[in-house]
Amino acid sequence: MKQLFLTFGFLAAALPALAATKVATLHPILADLARQVGGANVEVVEILKPGADIHHFEPAPKDLAEMRGTKLLLASGKGLESFLDKLRDSLGADVKLVEVGAKIPSIPFEEHHHEHAEKEKDHDHEEHDHHHHGSEDPHWWHSAENMKRAARVVADELSAVDPANASAYAAGAKVASKRFGELKSWAQKEIAKIGKKDRLLVTAHGAFGYFCKEYGFEPISLLGIGRSDDASSKHVAETIEEIREHGIKAVFPEDQANPKVLAEIARSTGVKIGEPLIADGTAKVAHTFETMLAHNVRSIVAALAPAAAK
Ligand SMILES: [Zn+2]
């Protein structure tokens, strides 16, 4: 009899894991965030896995079947997943679809247009003729402050579908936010090694707007936010001018994009090609906010800081 009670005791202890809330994710960083906030109370079903292309992903029938078994579906939002309306219709009311980015302040995608002729005519407006405002930038996960907001969104949504564990989710979000704050402080200290006038970040596609805003860089990208459009020869020429004018030391390819124009720019300016940056947060080697940020900051500091500061 005693043996029997012990067996039941063991089963009861194992129950919370069996009853874990199933959460599907459309970005590896959201999967990691859901695990950080939800701990043992959630089971994460990664629909878009590390290595996948976030700009060209479309859920397959097997993904739909997997999503149907979950309570909550976390998407990046900000227009990244163009299929969400269709998905919401086909999933119905049983799965709550949440665009985590919806509660994060947007920055517009800033395409770099350096108009030298105009600039020479009017020095006072130097700051204003650089940018052409376009569509919304979906790459919000490059900012620690945004990650803190996302942690709160995830905790609130988990609490809505699983109110019994609300306090655990709130505590999970607090721990995650504290960690994001520590990572931001570390990144700021590292980036301080790069002089303010040297903080021009030339990358393959327009993914680093939020990073640049948080750490005081000016972004220049050769491709747009969706990675597919080509750089015009005018834009390449402007970028070359900018690199020469500021004495910038490196340009950066990405784990999923290394357009030929970067090599062309390196050839004509003599700049280095830096380590490929992780732009979309899905690299197999680094697909959490922490590992992505660490990789990017180290690569940027290694290429742009003066040798003595590294
Ligand atoms: Zn991207």
Structure commentary:
With 310 residues, this protein is α/β, with parallel strands linked by helices. Helices cover 45% and strands 15% of the residues. The protein has helices at 2-18, 28-38, 61-68, 84-91, 116-121, 144-161, 166-191, 209-215, 233-246, 260-269, 289-304; strands at residues 21-25, 42-46, 72-75, 96-99, 108-112, 131-136, 200-205, 218-223, 250-251, 272-273. A 4-stranded parallel sheet has the order 2-1-3-4, covered by helices on one side. It has a two-stranded antiparallel sheet with strand order 5-6. Helix 4 links the parallel strand 3 (72-75) and strand 4. Residues 112-134 have low confidence and may be disordered. Bound molecules: zinc ion.
Question: What features would you highlight for this structure?
Answer:
single chain, 310 residues, alpha/beta, Rossmann fold, 4-stranded parallel β-sheet, two-stranded antiparallel ribbon, 10 strands, binds zinc ion, Bact_metal-bind_prot9, AdhesinB, metal-binding
Number of domains: 2
Hetero ligands: zinc ion
Low-confidence stretches: 112-134
Report how far the terminal alpha carbons are from each other.
67 Å
Fourth-level CATH superfamily of the largest domain? Nitrogenase molybdenum iron protein domain
What's the shape? globular
The level 1 CATH classification of the largest domain is: Alpha Beta
